[in-house]
Amino acid sequence: MTTSLATSLDALSCWKSALEPRLASFSAFLDQHGLSDATSRELVASMRRRLTGDKSKVAFVAQFSHSALELVNAILFADTGRRVLPATVGRDAECPVELRYDANQLPGLSMLPIESRQGGKTVAELQTDTRAWTHVRLQGSSPSQLAGALAEVMRTKEVSQREAQVLGCWDETDSENKPTLDGQARVEIPAWRYAVVNYPHPLLQRGLVVLCAPGLCSPGVEAELAHSALSGADATVFVLAADAAGVTASDMVIWRAYLAARASSCLVVLDGIETPHETLLTAEQKKVRRERLRQAAAQALKLSEDRVFGLSAREALMARVEGDVLALQRSRVPDLEGALGSLLLQQCTVLQAEICDSTRQLRALAERRFGEQRRQVDGQLLDLQGLRGKSRAKMHAMLQRLDVEEADFEQCTAKLQALRLVHSRMVKELLFGLMTDRLHKEAAKMRQVCFSLLRLGAKKFFSAMCARLRESLSTAQARAEEIHAMLDGSFARLNAEFGFGLAVEHEPDLTRYMNELRLIEHNYEQYFGLKQALRLAQPRFRDEFCSMLVSRLVVVFEAAHANLESWNRATSQHLESRLRARMLGFKRRREALERAHSVRSDLERRMGEIEAQDATLQQSLSHAGELVEDLLEHAQIDPATEDALADTRRGERDTEQPAPADSDQARERAVA
User: Where do runs of H (alpha helix) occur along 636-661?
Assistant: First the structure.
């Protein structure tokens, strides 16, 4: 039986819910035993953000908005008994619509006017500027009010050809995709640039985010907005019209420009597979036609056939409204929901790997700290055992030996200071190569060469620039490995000479940032072809293009820079904590010897205390191992298995969480 979308989201939620208390227990354990430092706290905070903040994002992409919106209606809003999203056939508005739920905000609709394009700021840059958006308050979870508000999102407006060109919604060179001109040479364009709906739908409350992105081959599309929105999607549904003659040229433009590079997370839908003229066909003839269309689409897009679905969103919507189970199965929308749910569960493997890696790092940190403490306790115990039956002169000699060890440690700190200077210089050189100033210089050169009058060699220069930027990351990777090797060798010598427990974390892997640069190059090189030459000649489009490209490159380099800085900070903090631990160990040994030297009768009692302290440390170390193994075991559970669901249900019973309201349960059952 296929896994429904609701069940998959529940499985993800259950898997995360099972991990949260275990992570909290281990974090509390670290705090209680004084094992927390800046590195461990940052790791725990990062894991908590991933478990509580990550949402499952599904993008519905279509050439025409009504195709994608009708499918979303069938999946999300059929239980309301009406069509909520405006999915009527006609002039399609090209405003992307994002549906999500944030409990910290009131239900509402936020729309960004199309005129905001004139400022040159991207949608991401305007996210926090509430004055730039038009807000409509929604009362509770009323579907009728939501439907009325969303009708405004699809609104278009008529402007002059010049104004449309300034807003990027008119392109003289694109004869196939021009907006309609009326008799007065006015152009119909979208009234809104982007819309965000905050709505308490059960699936959205489970962490689902739905993005409807229509018209990606139209002249008014914002390439940067489309790329950034789709790159963050866990799954993408590409909706095609089944009554068209196969995969159209416009469909292929969208596929190659936005989806081909992330085909592994894409599903393709042939909507309207049961057309009216097929009523006289037999069931077998319909099946043959449906399979032929699926095979043709899979072949054109180079996908396996199990990723292509022939279905009828309208039939599914009506079937769910009328409670017709057989008609719903005929629509084949449940098959798509099952595949979509499975795809979301597959994307969870990345989060699983990150959680497991962070947990193992925390375990290594805890083991090193416990090892340091046990070595200090063992040193104190050996000192005190040597005092049994010894004379006062012997104790004085032991204090002198401790003085020598402390003097040796002072020499060690001098070596560490030299090591810090070398490390600081190498890290500074490493990070200098990833400064964003270099990006802006490269962009300025690209503007001069690529946007000159003739623009000769523009594509070649762009490719060379991307190669240079990837080389910067490759050089940074090599220097990080050099720093790691230097620290590893230095730490090994210090450990052997002074009995430290120093260990350097493995250097960050910058491969994914290089891959991201390749993806950016692939997505943007199409703008240097002959078809886009006239568009690049337009000053507004040229400036917007440069701004969007640089912003994407800056994001990649800043992420790589932050990753390396975090690694360097963790290494420095580890070294500082070990030094403090060694100094504290000397202090405690001296205090123990001085107390034993002055009060001989306290010797046995003090030894008993230290032995008990060592036994407690061993028990704590064993307990830490159990907590880590429990966390790792549940992090590696497949969220789709019954074990994950059953484990969370037991956890919910143990914590006695209140059950949801009856109305919410009924709504969730209807959606599932």
Answer: 642-655
Assess contact for 117 and 193: CB atoms under 8 A: yes
Q: Identify the burial level of 615 via C-beta atoms within 10 angstroms of its C-beta, where 0-12 means exposed, 13-18 middle and 19 or more buried.
A: exposed
DSSP secondary structure code for residue 259 in this structure? I
Collect contacts of 321-327 with beta carbons under 8 A, ≥24 apart. Answer: 321/78, 321/81, 321/82
Strands 186-190, 192-198: pairing kind:
unpaired
| Geometric angle at alpha carbon 319, from 318 and 320, rounded to 5° | 90
What are the C-alpha distances in Å from 486 to residues 135, 495, 571?
Answer: 56, 14, 12
**Cα–Cα distance for residue pair 7/341, rounded to 1 Å:** 8
- Please tell me the distance from the alpha carbon of residue 526 to that of residue 523, in angstroms, as a whole number: 7
What one-letter code names the amino acid at 257?
Answer: A
d(CA 200, CA 203): 8
Characterise 171 by phi-psi region: left (phi > 0), alpha (psi -120 to 50), beta (else).
beta
Q: Are strands 266-271 and 308-311 parallel, antiparallel or unpaired?
A: parallel
Cα dihedral sign, 132-94-253-315 = positive
Question: Among 173-187, 248-262, 417-431, 468-482, which stretch is predicted with the lowest mean pLDDT?
Answer: 173-187
- Provide the CB-side half-sphere exposure for 630 (13 A, CA): 16
Instruction: Describe the crossing of helices 5-32 and 333-385 by its angle, rounded to 10 degrees.
Output: 10
Structure tokens at 509: 């892997």
Those residues with Cβ within 8 angstroms of residue 525's Cβ, 6 or more apart along the chain or in another chain: 459, 462, 463
d(CA 265, CA 258): 12
From 381, 377, 370, 365, select the one nearest 620 (Cα to Cα).
370
Express each pLDDT in 585-614 by its tens digit.
777 777 776 666 555 556 666 767 777 777
Residues β-bridged to residue 214: 62
528 near 155, Cβ under 8 Å?
Answer: no
- Kindly give, in sequence order, each residue whose CB lies less than 8 Å from that of residue 204, ignoring residues fewer than 6 positions away: 99, 100, 101, 210
C-alpha pair distances (Å), 272 with each of 41, 66, 263, 269, 315: 53, 12, 23, 9, 9
Give the other-Cβ count within 10 Å of 337's Cβ.
22
Quote the distance between the C-alpha of residue 404 and its chain's center: 53
Which of 83-87, 334-338, 384-388, 499-503 is the least confident region? Answer: 384-388
* Residues 56, 62, 65, 69, CA torsion sign: negative
Tens of pLDDT, residue by residue over 25-76, are: 888 888 887 777 777 888 888 888 777 767 888 999 888 777 788 888 888 8
Hey, what are 643's tokens?
A: 């074990």
Question: How far is 91 from 100, CA to CA, in rounded Å?
Answer: 26
When pLDDT is cut at 50, 70 and 90, the band that residue 651 belongs to is very low
Query: Which of 327, 320, 291 is CA-nearest to residue 75?
Result: 320
Helix (H, G, I), strand (E, B) or coil at 530: helix
Q: Which long-range contacts (CB under 8 A, 24 or more apart) does 298-305 make?
A: 298/268, 300/246, 300/247, 300/252, 301/247, 301/255, 301/260, 301/263, 301/268, 302/263, 303/263, 303/266, 303/268
**Radius of gyration of the CA atoms of the chain, in A:** 32
Write the pLDDT tens digit of every residue in 204-214: 888 889 998 88
* Helical axes 603-635 vs 5-32, angle rounded to 10°: 170
Q: How far apart are CA 334 and CA 338, in angstroms?
A: 6
